[in-house]
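Dear colleagues,

I hope this message finds you well. In preparation for our joint manuscript, I am sending the Aspartate carbamoyltransferase (Brevibacillus composti) sequence together with its predicted structure, so that both groups work from identical material. I would be grateful if you could confirm receipt.
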Amino acid sequence: MRHLIGIKDMSKEMIASLLERAEFWAQRPGVQSESLRGRFVANLFFEASTRTRFSFEVAQKRLGAHVLNFIPETSSTVKGETILDTVRTLEDMGVEAAVIRTKKDGLFEELADQVNVQLINAGDGTHEHPTQCLLDLLTMQQQFGKLEGLTVAIIGDLRHSRVLGSHLYGLPRMGAQLLLSGPSTMMPPAEVVPAGVKTVEIDEAVKTADVVMMLRVQLERHTNSLFISKDEYHQAHGLTLERVQLMKPDAVIMHPAPVNRGVEIHTDLVDCERSLIHKQVTNGVAARMAVLEALLKGEEMQWERSLATAQ
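The corresponding structure tokens are as follows:
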């Protein structure tokens, strides 16, 4: 890979390879590596973030990279500098990879052919969030030993979710059945939903799924305030204590976080035995380590694997 822009253009084999390497790191928590020793990586977050930003930084440091954390408020972007010029400036200084989160849909397609630095999408607008998709797939694979044949329900504010934007392609490509459910005003446009992805009522989604993934209502992206109260939303479209009883015995709960407790999910369910939410956070480091290695060390890793196979 030259860049990680989105899941849409990734093959099943490429996803599987990243998951294999992510599992390697997931089984070695806290292990330090010199894999990216001497390499410079910059984190450019133009939107607020806790899990994605810090898990990328932990991943980079565990791989031995030099990490530069960009702060928009103290940069030349406040003087009118474009993101393209910012990235080019970092490239001129020897930075080899840039992890970027932005409100702008399609920014990475604009940058990809204009810079040599390798780009990693840490979330662009409502478009995609590929590393979140990868860590979710890793978490599901660990739980069930497979992805093929699973039924995954993604429920909530689908229209504004870049997590869904990646899962629309990732889950079907890996052989999983994807169900969508949410308020009619928060459903994705029909033209972006691939064939085979089903839209169902929430109770059917909860009853049917092996994985029930709840999404946050992204009020910051809504042009109008929530059309109903938070409590009304919770009862109609959230994972309530009553609704969780409909789940299959071995089904699990996931959420990309941050969680609005008492809105899309009851607060008691965030930390319950069925919940894999904290496991997702843990797996974020391993998945991002795999991505960083694939981009910055890809050819060398392929050569090492070929040599090991030959021996």
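For the figure legend, we might mention the following. Residues 12-128+281-298 form a domain with the Rossmann fold fold (CATH 3.40.50.1370). The first helix runs from residue 12 to 26.

With kind regards,
E.M.
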